[in-house]
């Protein structure tokens, strides 16, 4: 990029001067969301760094990101060919692979439709408005029981360890038509390792950009390859079982519906997109992976914020008690009556910005942004953390204030303010699980807040420092949970 000819009328990208071989790796450091946000103050919304030998364009600012991902969406919707991405879903991931635009679009549509139909399907009894509500309500009730029993046995619990199984069961229900016990070692050993997965695929991992590092022994990379291997084997085994028991007249779950699509396509002579069955059925691998890690991270952070801000936790419980009561389980339809809970969730998304960058993007042709030239195949980082902490958009951005999302009298959610939070990306690559995710985080929290009171272990402060990765996690810790409704103990 430094030696590229700049077309007339366009400018060369600003940015820090790179060192030979390592580029700006030292300045980027271990908290890229902070260092790249600081650089945006110096260089502006569009600047360039070099990680190793590879130039990377970093985008900040709500307007600039909107311009790139929506108005110039086609040019910014590719994925870069990064070393770590090749190991995800055997290199056939919908979210991480460098699929051509036509193939990616067809797979994305299939994934979107499958998710939508299996979350909105009728529940097994009229008590539930849809399958998603049924799965979450049942898993929420199991979770409460499980935490109650762990508290009795051990006196404390690690929030992520239990939440992740409940959340994984919701997506397992939709994808594979089954759930796992909280002590299932096969599932636990997979879902408990997602921290290490995120650390490698987080934006700016030097091994993705400095080829020599790929040949040096690295424990993290070895772990990453092994996690992906185990994950792929786990899903493959279930997919094979589905092929064996597949019945065209009884489509049980998302895996069946994807197999069904492959069968239909073989009969469709007009089908013009060439895709292997593996690429179609492999979509379920992406849905399962994306569906548990993100939501369990959101819920674990929510619990941590409740512990760090006990007065907020009390207000959440009071709102639930007054609007839903303590005698029945909360429902999706209660959401409009729980504005403080919605405001709390938005503030957790904003303040933690636990997905600080989207998955890296890549330009699909030569383009320009804000007058700067950006060549084809340039890797682009989208800094969501910067938008969520931009003092131009937020008053006192570093403080945790759920009320910022409520109307002046505190009775209604300020939807316009909520739309300023960037957590799911935007434009053509925007998260396809957003509706499910927002509903799931809301309903799990409503169920938890109704029944449980969380606090830290005596004498221990909660550590809210995030650990950097694709999804940033809070440090693993132990908390206490007390049942609020004594009769259920
Ligand atoms: C992509 C956020 C839950 C499926 C993404 C991206 C973000 C994101 C930031 C990348 C956008 C980009 O590259 O520009 C979140 C958050 C979640 C969540 C914050 C929960 C709180 C889910 C769930 C599913 C899902 C539940 C599915 C069950 C996907 C898929 C992609 C994606 C398949 C890749 C889309 C593509 O590359 O075209 N998500 N997500 N996500 N998400 Fe989510």
Précis, in short:
By secondary structure, the chain is α+β, with helices and mostly antiparallel strands.
Describe this structure in words.
Its cofactor is heme. Keywords: Endoplasmic reticulum, Heme, Iron, Membrane, Metal-binding, Microsome, Monooxygenase, Oxidoreductase. This is Cytochrome P450 1A. Cytochromes P450 are a group of heme-thiolate monooxygenases. They oxidize a variety of structurally unrelated compounds, including steroids, fatty acids, and xenobiotics. Its main location: endoplasmic reticulum. The protein is an alpha+beta fold. Helix content is 47%, strand content 8%. It contains 17 helices and 10 strands. The chain has helices at 25-28, 32-43, 62-71, 101-120, 131-154, 159-176, 185-191, 194-201, 219-245, 254-267, 277-281, 283-308, 310-323, 339-352, 384-388, 415-418, 434-451; strands at 46-51, 54-59, 361-362, 367-369, 372-374, 379-382, 452-456, 466-467, 473-474, 479-483. The protein has a 4-stranded mixed sheet, with helices on one face. The protein has a two-stranded antiparallel sheet with strand order 4-5. A hairpin with a 2-residue loop joins strand 1 and strand 2. Helix 5 (131-154) packs antiparallel against helix 6 (159-176), helix 5 (131-154) packs across helix 17 (434-451) and helix 12 (283-308) crosses helix 14. The chain is globular. 43% of the residues are buried. Protoporphyrin IX containing FE (HEM) binds next to helix 4, helix 12 and helix 17.
